[in-house]
Structure formats: structure tokens, C-alpha cells
Amino acid sequence: MDQPADPRARRLFGGSARALGDLAASPFRADRDRIVASPFFSRLGGVTQVISPGGSGLLVHNRLTHSLKVAQVARAVAERLTADDRHSDLLEKLGGCDPDVVEAAALAHDLGHPPFGHLGERVLDRLARQRLGLADGFEGNAQSYRIVTSTEIRGAATTGLDLTAAVRAAMLKYPWTRLDHPDPHPRHLDPTPRGAAAPPDDPESGSAKFGAYRTELADLRQAREPFVGRIPDWQQTVEASVMDTADDIAYAIHDVEDFYRVGVLQQGAVAAELMAWQREGGHLRAVTDAALTGAARRPGSAIERLRRQLHRKDSWIADDEAFAAAVEHVRQELVEGLLALPFDGSIEAEQYVARFSARWTTRFVDAIGVTAEPDVRSGHVQLAKAQWHEVQVLKFVHHRFVLARPDLALHQRGQARLLGTLVEALWEWLLDPEEESRLPRRLHDLVELAEAELHPRTPDRIGRARGRAIVDFVAQLTDSQAVAMLDSLSGRSGALWTDAFVL
User: Which residues contact 453 (CB under 8 A, 6 or more apart)?
Assistant: First the structure.
């Protein structure tokens, strides 16, 4: 395939790799086809989004269905923006907004997410830094970027997915490394871009969220090169901003659907919280932060804490009138709408959920615009103030009434222990000289790849390469593969040959 003139379409590896999409009319559509054809994309069907499908017993979103819906929303947003002549000059000035680019980036954005959703991400990061000595730790977005640039092995060549610069740049929600790029690092800005701040309990660890490990820094720079001078080094491209906004929209809507289907999102609890704040908002605003925290179980207190948090973190858009209107709109849609009747699995119930999702998606997509000078905490593509607050309230509902549940915590603590034990078992296996010839071939290849990436004079080069290989290996498992592999390593599985699928 001839190299396109558009510098955003320039590939890192010279366009030598070929896939199903190479005959597509657009190089960006070829990228989309490469992503969808990748085994990493298929794997997402077995990776938890929020609730593990195996634990819920019902059909809920996994990382694959989530990615497909993010892609659908992202493309709708991009097509709407590019069809509006009011935005054309600004979009061109900022580097463009191609619907194929945002769709491809949305499909690829979760490729690196490990087993067990965000819990797995946190556990692997802790293990990578504290147990395996990897300063970059683990981050799902950075792992996705690593997959498309380096860790997908095709035969004898390690070439990633050979994606265009524009799609790789559009994957970068957080276009910085954990510690030192760009300079000055965005975690030192005041305020910090969203995700760039260090965790409060570990301020020396670098940014909590970041888009690439240092091993992929050269690729990040090459992907971002066409945008130099158009946007700051730490700012998302317009296409990344579209993808990020679409991800937020899908997360807010579809997780509420899941929790309703599973039956853990109850009308009475949501109604009590929202309506108590509406009745007693004036009184709650006069309560000190300490007193509010002490009254955590009092209805209305949690959403008042959300209102204050929005003012602290996002004062550029936080607005009490818009917040109150968002609470009312969500109350009407959820308390008097979706949650009024329990989900019973009927066709009518499914149609009702579908209408709820379509109504909210259309509302959000129609409320998106482009701004030339966004706040540091935002991208160039933004929801209108009213809808931005509605997204925050929807996300609050599932954080408050699902993620904070003790029964979910019990389940997740078991998953965290499983991942920790699996990492330890693989580390011991790698250190056993008598077992070197019987290592899983994938793990062996990943060790060689990680070793080749490190400078020859890197301290403890072999140890760090092994640590990164273990992280890469575990992150590529599905939920069920992680469970099955630990069962095998623990001697609990009697299915000798069928366990080979995880190797």
C-alpha cells in the first residue's frame, strides 16, 4: 500500500505489515480492520467491564461490547461535528477529526485492560512497582498503546498492529508517560490535567493515569509529531478528545443498564439519596466536610459530597444550578422511569432498556461541541454544561449503589488475591533453571521482547525484563483464563490438555 501524503497517516513501521483492511479506501479503515482482526480484540469478550459476567449470571457488558459501543458513540460524535460548518475551520486548525480515526481508536482503547476490570489494573500496578521493580508499573491505557506498537507478535517479527499516527495519537487520552514526558510534566501543572495528578497516598509515584510506558516513548512522540504547534504537548488531539468523551458517555449509560439488569440497582435506595438532597440541600451545604463524612449513611450526604468534589476538581464548569437540574433529570429518568419496574428479562423489559439507552445517548451526542481554548481539565471536545453534570450524576449512581457494596468488595478481594498469587507463581517459574525449556512460549517471547527494549547497561536488566514479561502475560489473559491458569499452577486442575489454551 502506498504511503498516504497525510502525515497523520504515516506508519511507524513503513507500512510493510498487511492485514484484512489494507485494501480499504482509507488507511484509517485499514487500522480499524487490523484492530478488529486482532486476537487482543477478541479476548475482550472475556474481560470484566464492571461486573463479572460469570459472577452475575446474566448478560452484562464486557470489555468487547463496551468497546463496540464506545466506537459507535465516537463515530456519531465525529460525524456530527464534521458535518457542522461552524466547526470546520477550528477542527482543521487543531489537526482534524476523521470519523474513521475516532472509531478505530475507540475500538483499540481497551485492548490492554487486564482480567477483572479496573481492580485488575490497580493490582497489577501495585505488583509491578512494589514486587517486580518496574518504575512504570502498569496502566491500562499505556498497556493498550504497548499492544498496538510492540507486543503483538506476527511470526518472527514484532510489529504491533502497524497503525497510523493519527489513530495512535487518538488512543492517547493521557499523552504523557508516568514520570518524565513531556517536560515540564503535566502532574506539576496547577491545576493538573484530568488523570495527571499523582495518587494522594503515593505522591512520588508519578501520574495516576498515563498513555505510554517509557519503552513506547519514541512511538508516542512520532504519533504526536503532526500535532506539534497545534496543541500543547499534554493536550489530547481532537480525535482523542472525541474518543474520551464517548467512553465517558458509554460508561455512564451502559453501566446503569447492567446494574438494573442484575437487580442490584434498587429504586428505593436511589430515590432516597436523590430526593433527600433535593429536600435538604440547603441544610447539607451548611454542614462541614468533616461532619458530612461522619454522616456518610445519611441519605443526601453522598451526593452533597459529589457536588463539593466537582467544585474542587472542576471549578471551570461546576455549577450549582446545573447540578440541581441534573439531579432532577436523573431522578425522573431513573426513579420514575427505568427503575420503576424490576427487570424481568422479557422482550418488553429489553425494549425499555434499549429506549432508555438510546434516549440518553442521543441527548449527550447532540450536546457536544468544540472549543478553541479548553480548560486544562478538559479537551477541545466538550459536553454542554447541563449534560456534563448529568454524566457526573449517572456515574455517581453506580459508584454509590454498586461499587461501594460489601458483597462486590468481597468478590473483588478474592480476584485481587488470585492475581497476586498468579504473578508470584509465574515469577517462581521463570527463576527455575530446570524449567526454562518448558516455559509457556508466549511468556518466553515476551521476556525476549522486554529484554531487547532495555538498554544493555540497565541495572538488573534480566530481572526487569522478566517482570515486564509477566505483567504483559497476565494482562493478556481473560478472567476465566486467569482462574484456570492459577488452578493449574496450584495443582487444583485435573484437565491436563485443555489447560494449554492459556499458554
Answer: 150, 215, 465, 468
Question: For each of the chain's 503 residues, which pLDDT tens digit applies?
Answer: 444 567 777 665 443 333 444 444 689 999 999 999 999 999 999 997 665 555 444 566 789 999 999 999 999 999 999 999 999 999 999 999 999 999 999 999 999 999 998 899 999 999 999 999 999 999 999 999 999 997 654 444 556 888 999 999 999 999 999 999 999 999 999 999 999 999 988 888 999 999 999 999 999 999 999 999 999 999 999 999 999 999 999 999 988 888 888 888 889 999 999 999 999 988 899 899 888 888 878 899 999 999 999 999 999 999 999 999 999 999 999 999 999 988 888 999 989 999 999 999 999 999 999 999 999 999 999 999 999 999 999 999 989 988 888 888 888 899 999 999 999 999 999 999 988 888 899 999 899 989 988 888 889 999 999 999 999 999 999 999 999 999 988 877 666 555 555 55
SS3 228: strand
Residue count (the chain)? 503
H/E segment holding residue 253: helix 238-262
Tell me, yes or no, if the pTM score tops 0.85.
yes
Going by C-beta distance under 8 Å and a sequence separation of 6 or more, which residues neighbour residue 271? 331, 335
Q: Which of 130, 247, 169 is nearest to 9 (CA)?
A: 169
Q: Rounded to an integer, what distance in angstroms lies between the CA atom of residue 102 and that of residue 241?
A: 9
Sorted by where each starts, the structural domains of the chain and their CATH numbers stand as: 7-238 (1.10.3210.10), 267-404 (no CATH)
| Cα end-to-end distance, the chain, whole Å | 34
Residue 302 neighbours by CB under 8 Å, 6+ apart: 273, 296, 396, 400
In this structure, what DSSP letter does residue 498 have?
A: G
* CA-angle at 286, arms to 282 and 292, nearest 5°: 105
